[in-house]
Amino acid sequence: MEQGGVFFMSKIKNERTKAFREAFEKNSKQVAVQRGVVKNGIRTSAENVQAQIENAPVFSIDLATGKVANQKQSGRCWMFAALNTFRHKLLTSFQLKDFELSQNYTFFWDKYEKANYFYENILNTAEQPTTSREVTFLLQTPQQDGGQWDMIVSLFQKYGVVPKSVMPESSNSSNSRDLNNYLNKLLRKHATLLRQMVAEKASNEEIQANREAMLQEVYNLLAISLGTPPEVFDFEYRDDEKNYHLDQGLTPQSFYDQYIGVNLDDYVSIINAPTEDKPFMKSYTVDMLGNVVDGKQVKYLNLEMEDFKALAVKQLEEGESVWFGCDVGQSSTRDSGIMALNAYDIEDLFDVDLTMTKAERLDYGESLMTHAMVLTGVDMIDDQAKKWKVENSWGEKVGEKGFFVMSDEWMDEYTYQIVVRKEFLSPDQLAAFEATPTVLAPWDPMGALA
Fold first, then answer.
1. Contact of 389 with 378, CB cutoff 8 Å
2. Which domains are present in the chain?
3. To which H or E segment does residue 384 belong?
4. Which DSSP string do the residues of 138-171 spell out, in sequence order?
5. 0.70 surpassed by pTM
6. Active-site residues: which are they?
7. According to its UniProt record, which residues of this chain constitute the active site (predicted)?
8. Is 338 in contact with 444 (CB distance < 8 Å)?
9. What percent of the chain has pLDDT over 70?
10. Distance from C-alpha of 372 to C-alpha of 392, rounded to nearest angstrom
11. Do 257 and 407 contact (CB within 8 A), yes or no?
């Protein structure tokens, strides 16, 4: 009911509910479906075998990658995906087998830097009330496992990388729930102290001294939980031909320079966000998003999907895998590893219409980037991409030994970001990327962490 432009509550009447029940029970098809769904669950009942038939794991471009990694019970997909792109290069250049870079090493420095970045944002908003949207946003999750491409670049450029054998996985990197819980408790406590010091007009010297003491506590917590990151190490391995190699006295930075050698400034993030507030061919950044203070700015170029996919194909054709971010939980099967719009017939199962545009899903909170993986292949037929090969980081027991197949239509709807070499961009695209970016709010869906 509406009166004078104001909508009043319309309560549910018991008679109406009774009518709904009677209508449901008269529909024999719905009752039959009910028995199957109650017994087997929604997704199992709705799974469509046709999606597997249409997305067979065969690709015209298929890069060699080795075995998949496993992030286990942690949110480090963005980190695994980036390290996997390096691993692909190492496997080929140095004839390595089953080699991984240390995710735990990068994880340590990410947590450490995120704590300092949190302090920076807390101090910058210290004169706002704790009820302000910005402060509430900061305190809700002081830090987490997720991240963005430019954030991982900041870590690599500052700390380098090391082999997994030098800093292997720990219990708390493989299952990060407790670490995140107690680290966030500590950071919120630190936030109360920093805000109190600002309120009491403490000097900058006093604030910085206390901030240093807080960082020492963070470092100690991380070192106890994850181990101490190596400063100097030896790299010992046998290649595919069983030849022995020993490289001594390496640092994480010298290891990166010698064995990875990728100029990360040559890469740019491309997004597809078809919402009215983000015109295409414009660059964007997100307020309060990052990990390393004064590190690389998180920055994107928004392109239409046709141009977005063309850039991914170019990089794959050049023999290089592509880091990408998507909403992996949408219409995808974990066991068979199929990402397709018809993976489940949910609408037929419930007799409802769930259709929304990509822009509507972003605007109404139905979808955003939740996971990062690596494109390692594409099936091109008549110069058109039909399906994509995806390297996940959930181990070999999902998909086809850890690899997924993504239909081209699924990419259109649920893929939001790729990272490609800037040389593949047209002059106009490069100029648009390099322009001063529009600053998005911290809670914008394009600020989601994979």
1. yes
2. 54-93+100-447 (3.90.70.10)
3. strand 384-391
4. HHH-S--S---HHHHHHHHHHH---BTTTS---H
5. yes
6. 77, 371, 392
7. 77, 371, 392
8. no
9. 99
10. 8
11. no
